[in-house]
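Entry for zinc ion complex. Fields follow.
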Amino acid sequence: MEFEFWWLLALPLFFSLGWLAARVDLKQLLAESTALPAAYFKGLNFLITNQHDKAIEAFSEAVQANTDSLELHFALGSLFRRRGEVDRAIHLHLNLLQKKELEPQQRIAVSAELAQDYLKAGLLDRAEELFESLDDDRYRQPALRALLEIYVREREWERAVKAATELERLSGVPFRIEIAHYYCEMAVKSQLANDTHSARFELEQALNANKNCVRANVLLGDLEAEANAHSAAISAWKRIEFQKPEYLGLIAPKLLNSYRALNQTHIGLALLQTYLQTYQLTSLLNVLFEATLAEEGAESAAKLARNELIKKPSLNTLDQLLQARAIVEVSHEQDTQLMQQAVRHAIGNRTAYYCEHCGFKAKYHHWQCPACNAWEALPAEPTTI
Ligand SMILES: [Zn+2]
């Protein structure tokens, strides 16, 4: 193989190019670092080691030495916010806004920071006004996110729908579940104002936004049942089986009430039986047990509990079996009641709905977590621990 001698000439050339590039970078870096006060690096160091008080001190010093640097101000402001010292953040950003030499772009950037301060401080009106005034594409998405949070907190559902729809379009992240709940909230409001017509329309919108919105069918059924249209109510609730069957336990008492109003309790009980066989939900068994006890007596209820207990051992079902047996066997009533008390004691108050997002423990089902405001984050069935 013939060796190409000109390569030998090319090699030093490459080396010198690399050396030059490194030197240029180094020079730039040095220029930048001397422009930043030493206090800035001290502050960074405190941040890394989680000494936030000292970091604030160092950054404040850096800001004083370098009053023109917006980035330094923003760093200090966000540190104030994170530490809960929102007053100081607001003061800092308001002072910046008073500077005459700010360019329009910089003014928007400072306003965006100030809006975040107001949001954190709970000054929602001011935050809302400022976020809405941010007329710049770069801030549109974060502003919309903040605005959406404000609208939900202030229960301004029409505005929430608009903001979420635009956010969905800009970010590509779906907001279907949330939008459907905003419509459901509107429907609840309309229903409270006896405006059934609007409520019905809003529930349709909810289902258009998310065809799997269980809550829309729950509310639609409520609406019909309240107007004594029990057959229509039943068909609305029955649709939940094809959306998310795990929610059937939630509407089982409602279903049964409407069947009772139609004098068709036995059909209702048979339907719940079918649901129980198919989906094995504890809450369904509870409703069915109480109804069977009331409608068909203790023998039937005991049979139901016994059959379920054979399929799956559970303290809850054992409790039901004992309850029914105490009624049937009057002679052993006292023993059975003692056994039941022991079981109840063992079960205790251990069932709850836990939020998937924040772990909040709720006694009842909520569509929106009371702690973190996430939608549908609580499970359909309570968890036993
Ligand atoms: Zn939560």
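NOTE: The longest helix spans residues 6-35.
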